[in-house]
Write a structure and sequence with these properties.
By secondary structure, this protein is mainly beta. The protein has two domains: 131 residues, Leucine-rich repeat, LRR (right-handed beta-alpha superhelix), CATH 3.80.10.10; 64 residues, no CATH class. The protein contains one helix and ten strands; from the N terminus they run βββββββββαβ. The protein has a ten-stranded parallel β-sheet. The protein is elongated, with a radius of gyration of 18 Å.
Length: 220
């Protein structure tokens, strides 16, 4: 949770067009909401906000985010980048090793940015409504991940390493053209929900029954 004693600046839906320069001078901010402001860019000056724990840049027109995003050492709670026009992330964001929640849904990613797999404290990753055709084996680096949301992508399969995520509770694969699921998913010790709705291309594997017998809810 956010520290209630820290300053919070909510500029949601203010029709800004661009971020006022005086925002970057507020170096004590714990949270900053810039969602839904028709932003097409964010200044590198965002790196001055060293105490930010939550940043919301969702619902804008961003095609890139600044390298300085990786300088936000205190960013631990949330980073919202959803509903933009992003197709890549700078390698610098991989330095956000304490971040627990990342939302990159509703963008133009064709490949999962490699920098995400350095965010080893992630508990929840939302990457729905993009153009992913595959996930790399390095998804296994996110050993703390509890929720992985991949709805409405172009995935035809998943890597075997998906089965090495010891904390994974929810796996949302709705609306993907899947033809294969690795048997390693059966070994996920804490999986509670596997969502395969709107996946007409997949013949449900036999180990689904084992998951259900173990108490996992499977939606087909």
């Amino acid at each position: 949770m956010l520290d209630p004693s820290g300053p919070h600046l909510n500029l949601w839906k203010k029709r800004l067009g661009r971020v006022p320069e005086d925002v970057w001078a507020q170096t004590q901010l714990a949270s900053l909401v810039l969602a839904d402001n028709d932003l097409s860019e964010v200044s590198e000056n965002i790196g001055r906000l060293k105490k930010l724990r939550m940043l919301d840049l969702g619902h804008n027109r961003l095609t890139s985010v600044p390298d300085a995003l990786g300088d936000l050492d205190a960013l631990t709670d949330f980073l919202y980048l959803h509903d933009n026009k992003l197709s890549s992330l700078p390698s610098s964001v991989g330095r956000l090793k304490r971040l627990r929640y990342l939302n990159i849904s509703e963008n133009a990613f064709a490949v999962m940015p490699e920098s995400i797999f350095y965010m080893t404290s992630l508990i929840e990753l939302r990457a729905s409504d993009n153009r992913f055709k595959c996930l790399p084996e390095s998804i296994a680096c996110l050993a703390q991940l509890r929720e992985l949301h991949l709805r409405n992508n172009m995935l035809v399969s998943l890597p075997d390493s998906i089965g090495t995520l010891p904390e994974l509770r929810q796996l949302d694969l709705r609306g993907n053209p899947l033809t294969y699921l690795p048997t390693s998913i059966e070994a996920l010790p804490r999986l509670e929900k596997l969502d395969l709705r709107w996946v007409s291309s997949l013949e449900p594997p036999p180990w689904i029954v084992t998951l259900e017998e173990r108490g996992c809810i499977v939606y087909l």
